[in-house]
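Technical note accompanying the year-one report. For the benefit of new consortium partners, we illustrate the data format agreed upon in the data management plan: each record pairs a sequence with a structure-token string. No post-processing was applied to the example shown here.
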Amino acid sequence: MKEMRGYHLMSEKWALESLHKKRLKLSLFKDMNDPFELLCVELGSPQDRVVFQTLKDETNRSVGVLCFSKAWSNPVLWSHYADKHRGLALGFDIPDEWAMEVNYTGAMLKAELEHSLPSETNSSFGDKLLTTKFSHWQYEKEVRTIIKLEDSHSEGELYFLPYCNAMRLREVIIGPRSEFTATQVAEKIDPCPDDVEITKARLAFRSFEVVRDRSLPKVTVHAQQIAALDFNSKYNGA
């Protein structure tokens, strides 16, 4: 099974809670920071706009999304998603089949709505709606995992997906402005079925990047023999 490494950046508080409870919170499209989510199609008529708003509402009621970046070196990611470099980046190994790459474009999609709306026979267009963003978001290098809300764990209006065979924690990067050490973060991690490497990051000296601070020791939390939740049997992608 081919996998990719995806990074989920969070504030320190929520990252530590995620490590302790072994779960990630799903985002709903209506709450994401890009208001054009699911609205990446030219909508020339009022009727088209009503159709797509209804589609967006239905999607928000049925699915959530986990967002990852293919790299963590961009300082803007840390500024936007990790509390101005005070947070952490959690690195997960994700099966390729669950990782949907975001397509960045400078122009909206064109479609004949009666032939393009998502359906069982037209999942390709549905995937484009879920993964198309304006080109200025390209710095995120985003990949997404789409999860049915009915297959997640809910607490009030929040939805969570536990760490599982299809989302295996393998790495933790501590932000440059965090006061935590690798050893302190290691103490927050409960037993995992895989080795987890913890490193501290710093600002690069010769480029606008965030890089590993190799002057500080990395810490490895070694795997323990516990069963990982089987994503394929309990949690089904939408």
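Partners are asked to follow this layout when depositing records. Residues 3-234 form one domain.
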